[in-house]
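hiii so my PI (J.) wants the whole complex modelled not just the main chain, which honestly fair. so below is everything: four entries, each one labled with what it is. i double checked the lines twice but i was tired so who knows lol
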Amino acid sequence: MIKYAILGLLHYKDMHGYRIKEHIEQNFGHMWSINYGQIYPNLKKLHEDGLISMTEMNQTGEKGPKRKLYSITGKGKQEFSRWLEESPEKPMLLRDPFLMRFVFYGFGDSERFVEIIGNQIKRYENDLKRRRKNLKRWDKNSIYVKLIAELGTSLNEMFITWLKHSREEILKDEQNNKKRERKTGKRRIA
Amino acid sequence: MIKYAILGLLHYKDMHGYRIKEHIEQNFGHMWSINYGQIYPNLKKLHEDGLISMTEMNQTGEKGPKRKLYSITGKGKQEFSRWLEESPEKPMLLRDPFLMRFVFYGFGDSERFVEIIGNQIKRYENDLKRRRKNLKRWDKNSIYVKLIAELGTSLNEMFITWLKHSREEILKDEQNNKKRERKTGKRRIA
DNA sequence: CTTTCTATATATACATAGTATATATTAAAA
DNA sequence: TTTTAATATATACTATGTATATATAGAAAG
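here's the output for the full assembly
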């Protein structure tokens, strides 16, 4: 999939590897991240397959070694369009180290987990502030990029609501458990 | 992370590889999927590290080759608890072949994309029906498992709303573009 | 009664995604 | 003139995910 993301960016503008990462961070950093370890091997593969072409640049007055500027080829544009108009097979995949733990929170100390949930709420409330501030920035972009940014804030809002709801439910559940313990205790004494 | 998911399931109950997949599909199939290619190598590694123990079973009256039943060890429980009480570092990661394409829809034929968005809406509306039906089933489980199921439906609802909103915005944008074309056409004639 | 089918069960090879780190170049700062 | 910082590319390694191979035995078909 990253292959096509890179192809799409080169469809928009010629770039070298370092610039691709910069571009993604500036424009999609709120939802997507990428590493050089994914970029350079993919550029190499795309070049071998003839989907992109490469020119070594002799830039002056710039730091660092020579840039390798990549352009999408005709073949590349064709392959990109083919992919773009496919109806995607696989469903959305949500991976999160917090949610992975959440499933098993029944095995541990609920007080600690209420604390961790608090941390998550803080994190995503900060994210949301930043996203809302950036939303206006996308107005000049294509509606598609703007809509993706809107999805980001919606997801964020929904998740915060769910986190707060979960915290309440866990605290309620904990109090019920304590009550039950007290009752059992009394019976034992009696 | 899968390492800890498996450890968590074995914390709940002794299982062999095949059963682990079955269990995940029955209980978390709506949000999580796993393959034997992830399960068996992980079981092997966990066993080597002494976090789980293994007994070959001599089951009779059952199909297939001998099962290898795994149990979590004391060391495994310790390692699992350590992980469980960690505050997760990395943020949520949403990966979706549809959203990856969505970013680049400005490069292609909007009519085709409206069609694809329609397919997505159908898919997630079916998912939502299934999820709502299953929600009651989680009442008997731990509140954590139940809350995760609720998150699933919330995410689903939010995404459908966003898809419908996006479809409208794209159609509106298309009409604006056509109007602009007609105006430019007139000017050219005049 | 023996071949074929199906479900159970384990295992490995391979591809893709993601992290960590090594290396080179040059401008600017100390 | 050595060090630091930014630019730029590249590779090694780990984790995740897909595809496929292999084995066993009950059930069904002929």
